Automatic annotation (TrEMBL):
This is Phage tail protein. Pfam families: Phage_tail_3.
Length: 141
């Protein structure tokens, strides 16, 4: 079994009910996608041990890291900043080299990362989820 490399993993978005996704270039890091359900305690006075049932999932925020590119007027930073300033929810899709992916709706917030000598300029796009994360699978022939 060959390991799946992260090379060619992409993040795309569509906004305002668009029909096609636009890839966001210079993606450097993808966060964990998914979540664990909260534990709800249901222990009674007659229980021999503490007992729990699964509650709702807390997916948290998703933080994607990008290389900052100021070479074009439609840079990834400017596109994401525009989504943030619009205050609208957009649909995002993470896609892996084998075609498997994750799709979700979120508000976006961007911030410049710390700058350092002899280091690349980067920024983080944090996604505040507004939907569950759906797994998309490649078409099998």
């Amino acid at each position: 079994m060959a390991g799946l490399l992260t090379k060619d993993t992409t993040l795309s978005y569509k906004a305002d009910g668009g029909s096609t996704f636009t890839e966001l270039e210079h993606l450097m890091e993808v966060p964990e996608l998914g979540g664990d359900p909260e534990k709800v305690e249901v222990t009674t006075l007659s229980s021999p041990v503490k007992q729990f049932i699964p509650g709702i999932k807390d997916l948290g925020d998703l933080a994607f890291k990008f290389l900052y590119d100021n070479e074009t007027t439609n840079s990834n930073y400017r596109l994401l900043r525009g989504l943030q300033e619009s205050g609208k929810v957009a649909t995002f899709r993470v896609e892996y080299p084998d075609g498997t992916g994750h799709e979700f709706d979120a508000y976006v917030n961007v911030k410049m990362d710390a700058a350092a000598v002899n280091a690349a300029m980067t920024f983080t796009a944090s996604m505040s989820l507004q939907s569950d994360i759906e797994v998309t699978n490649p078409t099998v022939a």
